[in-house]
Give the backbone structure.
Amino acid sequence: QVQLVESGGGLVQTGGSLTLSCAASGPTFANYAMGWFRQAPGKEREFVAAKSWSDGSTYYADSVKGRFTISRDNAKNTVYLQMNSLKPDDTAVYYCAAEKYGLGYVPDYWGQGTQVTVSS
């Protein structure tokens, strides 16, 4: 069982930056691909970014490519999402996710989410 706890959300102005963190508990964090998803009000949850468990490949949604960066620290069992040049459309609840031996697109575990609000 993997437990995920996000932190770092908040209110930021357009063009600002935030860094989300996700602390994972449970065995063999390195065997899990880690990802970030988000859900805006009235919309379905969507993929944002992921980092594979094997070779560290990263994947991004087109809407965040060039602005967001996903990274992980296996020694700290933590994954990060650095978000720059934020836009009001980035406003959503952001969820951390873990997928064993995968690419991060089909999570086995979810965090409870952290709110990110970008004001115009």
